[in-house]
Design goal:
Two copies of one chain form a homodimer.
Chain A lengths: L18 H7 L11 H10 L27 E9 L4 H19 L17 H4 L21 E6 L5 E2 L2 E2 L31 E7 L2 H12 L6 E10 L29 H4 L14 E10 L1 H4 L4 H8 L36 H5 L10 E15 L7 E15 L6 H11 L6 E11 L12 H4 L1
Antiparallel strand pairs in A: 1-5, 1-6, 2-5, 3-4, 7-9, 7-10, 8-9
Helix pairs in contact in A: 3-5
Chain lengths: 445, 445
C-alpha cells in the first residue's frame, strides 16, 4: 500500500518524491505519509480531483482570488503571529500554504504538508507528541464550493518592535499603514492585527473552515493562530442582499458593482513597491451593530440615518436603487433630501475625492455579550454581538479608507448604532502565477 | 394608506382589530402599526405570503416542528430569563411568540407584535424611548427556507429560588431534571440554562436569525435574552454528514435515522404531566472539540477512540456504515474490535438498556479563545472554540441522557478531545393545534 502513497511534505522518509518535486508539480495526491493498513485504506478512498468548472475558482493568476471573485456564501478569516527569526522558515510556510490552498481550491482531499522546523522554540510542539499529515476529512465529498484562499501580510512581517525581522523592512509598502485611532473605536487587540492573514471564502462553511484549519496546521510552531472570525453572506433571491439592519448593502463600494477601472482604484501599480504590483490592500473592521436599538427606531428615521429608502434601496429623493445620489436636492421643507449626517452621503465617492473601496459584505453573529452602547441612553444589556465584517480592498488606504472613515467616525449618524470592535490592515500580494509558484515569491525570492 | 394597515398587536390605537381578533385569525398582515407615508410605502411592499410547499414546514400540529423535521442547514438557539411576577404576562408573551413563529414559518414578512407590560420593572424600556413594530426586513424575499421555531420551558419557569413563580410549580414534570455534575464538565453558567427557550432552524441563516431576533423583541421587558448560539449542519452530498472530527455523525441516535417507535422513546405519553403529552425533553450541550489535538492523532488511533472507521463510518470489525455494532467481536490479537472505551460502544443503545436519543447534529464555530486542554499534555494555547451542538430529544432524560452521559463522562476515550462548555434542559410542550392556539396553552389555559 505504501508504495502508492505520496509523501507530499518530504518529512516522512527518503523513499517519496522530495517536497520540492511535489511543489513543482503543484498538487498533492490524496494519501497519508505513514505506513499501515488502516491509513492505506484512507489513501485508497480520499483521492478526489475536480476539473475547473462552475464551482472551482482559480488559485493561480495575476491577482489573488477572493477580491473581485463573486462573493461566496461563507467566510472564515484568520490571522497568525510568527514565532520564528528565520526568513527561510517563513518562506517554507508560505510555499506550503500556497500549494495546499491551490489543491483545496480544486476540491482535492489532500495530505497536509506538515512542516516542523529544526529548532522548535514555542510551546506547541513541545507539548504534542504525535502529528499526522492526513486530511481531516470533514469536507471530503462536499466539493470545491468555489473556495478561494487569499493570503495577506501585516506590518509585523516587516517590523516587530522596530526590528527588521527577516531583512525585508525596506520592502514594507507605505500603503501598509498603521491606522490612526478613529473616534469611537473600541478595538479588541486580541481580535485585531497579525503578521500573516488568511481569508477563505466558499459556498459551504464546512469547506471554508476545513481550508483554514488545514492550512493553519501546516506549521503552528512557525505561524500560530492569533484570531479567527466566521462570517456569512446574506442571501437575497431578489437582488442586492440586505445587511442585518435590513438595508440593501453593496449598491456601491462593493465587489458586486466594482469601479470600472480597477487598475486605478484597486490593484497596486508601478508607484509603490515593485513586488506588490498586481496586489492590493485590505482593511478589515469588525463592526458590531446595536440591533436591539436599531429595531426600535421607526423606518423613516432609519432611512434618514442611512440616506436611502429601506425597501427599494433608492437614495432619498430618488426612486431606483442605482440612481445617483443627488446631494444637492432639498425637500419641501428646505432641508437636504439626504441629510448632512447620512451614511450614504458621507461614504459616497462624490464626497471623498472619488475614492472607492471594493468591499466584500459579510455578516457575522458571535452570539450575545454584555455591552454598553456608546450613545444615549447608554443602555447596558446583554446584546447580540452581530453585525458586519467590513473587508475593504483598495489601492491605497491612505487615499480611501483612512480619509473616508475619519469623516464617518465623527459625523456619520450610523455611529449611534455601530461600534468597530476589531481591526487590521494587510498587504495582499499579487497572485502566484502557476503551479510551483507561491504568494510572497515576489517579495522573498 | 393606514386604513389598510393591520394593527396586529393592538397597541397602536383603537381603530384596528383587537389583538385577540388577529391572534384568532392566526396571522399577521405585512404592515406597520404607525401612520406616515414612508412607512406606508413599507406596508405596500412587504406583504408576502407563501403557501405550503417544499420549503414551508408546518408550525401547527400535534408535535412541535424542529424535532423530527429533517435537519436544516442552520440553527440559532436562544434562552431567556423572565423578568416578571405576572402569569398573565407570560401567557401574553407565549401567545405572541406562537403566532409570530407561525407567520415566520410561512415566510410572511410580518409586523412584530411588540408587547409592553403596564408595569415595566426592568431596565430595558426605561432607557429606550422609541419602539417600532415594523419587520426588520433583512430576510424579506429570501423565502420560508423550511424555518421551524421550537419553544421550550426551563425549570426556572416553574421554580425560581424555590418559589412557585406563576402558580404552576405543581405542574413541573419530573422529567425536567436538573442535570448532575458530570466528570469533566466545564460549564459556563452565562451560556447555560434559562426560563424559556427558542430553537430556530432553517436552510438560510438570514431567515433563522431574523426569526430569533423578531421573536426576542416582542417583549424584552418580560423575557430578556440570556444567551444565543449559532450552529450549522455540515453538508455531505454523499451521505451522512461528517462532524468537525471528520467522522460521520448521525448514523444512529439521530433524527436522520430515528427509532421506529417514537411514542416509546421520544414523545411524552400518559405517564407524566398530562399537559406534556405529545411533547418531549431536550438536553442541550455545547461540546468543544480540541481540533488541534485531534488533528495530530493518526487515523487508526482516531478510529479506536470513536469505534468506527473514518472513511466508511462502519463499526470497527464491520464493513458498512449501517452494520450493527458487534460488541463481542475480537481481533486477531484477542482484544475487542471495538475497544472498551470507544465512544460508539459506550453510547450504543445496546449498552444503555436500549435508550436512544433523537439528536439533531449541528456544528458550531465561535472563533478562537485561550484554552487549557483537560488531558495530558494539558496544552495551553489559543485554540478553536468549535465543535458540536448536541441537541438531544428524548421521552425521559432520566432514562436516556443522564445514565448514558454518566458513563461517557467517566469512560469515553473521546473525553481527551471534547469538553462540555454549556448545558441546559428544556421541556418541549406539544405543538399548538392550529391558528389561535399557542405553545404552552395546555399548561396555562
Amino acid at each position: 500500500m505504501t508504495e502508492h502513497v505520496q509523501d507530499s511534505a518530504g518529512t516522512a522518509g527518503p523513499s517519496g518524491p522530495s517536497r520540492r518535486d511535489v511543489l513543482r508539480r503543484g498538487m498533492f495526491i490524496g494519501g497519508a505519509a505513514v505506513a499501515g493498513g488502516a491509513v492505506g485504506a484512507v489513501a485508497d478512498h480520499i483521492a478526489e480531483h475536480h476539473d475547473a468548472g462552475d464551482d472551482v475558482e482559480p488559485f493561480y493568476g495575476a491577482h489573488q482570488g477572493g477580491v473581485v471573485t463573486n462573493t461566496q456564501q461563507h467566510t472564515v478569516i484568520a490571522a497568525f503571529d510568527l514565532h520564528t527569526t528565520s526568513r527561510g522558515e517563513v518562506v517554507e510556510v508560505l510555499r506550503r500554504w500556497s500549494a495546499l490552498a491551490a489543491a483545496l481550491a480544486r476540491g482535492d482531499s489532500t495530505t497536509v504538508p506538515i512542516y516542523t522546523p529544526k529548532d522548535v522554540s514555542n510551546a506547541y510542539s513541545k507539548t504534542t507528541q504525535v502529528s499526522t499529515t492526513s486530511d481531516s476529512l470533514e469536507a471530503w465529498q462536499v466539493g470545491p464550493s468555489r473556495l478561494t484562499v487569499t493570503i495577506g501580510f501585516g506590518r509585523g512581517l516587516f517590523l516587530s518592535d522596530g526590528k527588521d525581522r527577516f531583512g525585508i523592512a525596506g520592502a514594507m509598502p507605505d500603503e501598509l499603514v498603521e491606522l490612526p485611532h478613529f473616534a469611537g473605536d473600541e478595538l479588541d487587540p486580541d481580535q485585531s492585527d497579525g503578521d500573516l492573514f488568511l481569508q477563505a471564502c466558499g459556498d459551504d462553511l464546512q469547506v471554508v473552515f476545513h481550508a483554514i484549519r488545514s492550512i493553519a496546521r501546516i506549521s503552528p510552531d512557525v505561524a500560530a493562530l492569533r484570531w479567527t472570525q466566521v462570517g456569512y453572506s446574506p442571501s437575497n433571491k431578489a437582488g442586492t442582499p440586505r445587511n442585518l439592519m435590513g438595508f440593501k448593502d453593496g449598491t456601491i463600494n462593493s465587489n458586486a458593482h466594482p469601479p470600472a477601472d480597477l487598475d486605478a482604484t484597486l490593484w497596486a501599480g508601478s508607484d509603490g513597491q515593485g513586488w506588490m504590483r498586481g496586489g492590493t490592500y485590505l482593511v478589515y473592521r469588525r463592526i458590531r451593530m446595536s440591533l436591539e436599538h436599531w429595531d426600535r427606531l421607526q423606518v423613516p428615521d432609519q432611512e434618514k440615518v442611512i440616506g436611502r429608502q429601506k425597501v427599494s434601496g433608492a437614495p432619498l429623493g430618488g426612486s431606483d436603487e442605482f440612481d445617483a445620489l443627488d446631494l444637492t436636492k432639498r425637500g419641501s421643507d428646505g432641508t437636504p433630501a439626504i441629510p448632512a449626517t447620512a451614511h450614504a452621503r458621507l461614504a459616497a465617492p462624490e464626497t471623498n475625492n472619488g475614492a472607492v473601496i471594493v468591499r466584500r459584505a459579510f455578516a457575522y453573529n458571535n452570539g450575545t455579550t454584555q455591552f454598553t452602547e456608546r450613545w444615549p441612553p447608554w443602555r447596558q444589556a446583554l446584546e447580540y454581538d452581530a453585525g458586519l465584517l467590513f473587508l475593504g480592498y483598495q489601492q491605497d488606504p491612505r487615499k480611501a479608507f483612512v480619509p473616508i472613515n475619519s469623516r464617518l467616525a465623527i459625523n456619520d449618524a450610523l455611529n449611534q448604532f455601530t461600534t468597530h470592535t476589531a481591526s487590521a490592515v494587510f498587504a495582499i500580494p499579487p497572485g502566484a502565477s502557476g503551479p510551483g509558484h507561491w504568494v510572497g515569491e515576489t517579495l522573498f525570492a
